[in-house]
Write a structure and sequence with these properties.
Blueprint (H helix, E strand, L loop, with lengths): L4 E7 L2 H11 L2 E3 L7 E5 L4 E7 H4 L16 E5 L3 H13 L3 E2 L5 E2 L3 E7 L5 E7 L8
Parallel strand pairs: 1-4, 5-9
Antiparallel strand pairs: 2-3, 3-4, 6-8, 7-8, 8-9
Length: 135
Amino acid sequence: MTKMIFINLPVTDLAASMAFYKALGFENNPHFTDETAACMVWSEAINVMLLTHDKWRTFTSRPIPPPTSSEVLLALSFDSRAEVDAANEVAAANGGTADINPAQDLGFMYNRNLADPDGHVWEAMWMDPSAIPTD
């Protein structure tokens, strides 16, 4: 079996969050989706579980952080710098926030940070491994 990661995120509006992630290029897996949760697939190994607050609370009693805080910064790789830029435009047009941190251009790597409608932070990034400095 392929090793997989399921990132669980609490969301306030499941439908709006599903639309946001779909606009970024995620696919919905209906086998793990109901009125309390949605499985959004990025790749064969990476899935994001969007959970209503009530559903989230069945997993943990820890508080849900406010949307202005950050617990993690999750990175998604894209095939080009243009796709990184497009991801930020899509985020802003679909209830998220683009460029929540300054863009970074290291030549071999380029990234811009965005937030989903609930403030979860994502780094859209592109990297050319063949151009990584070897010094």
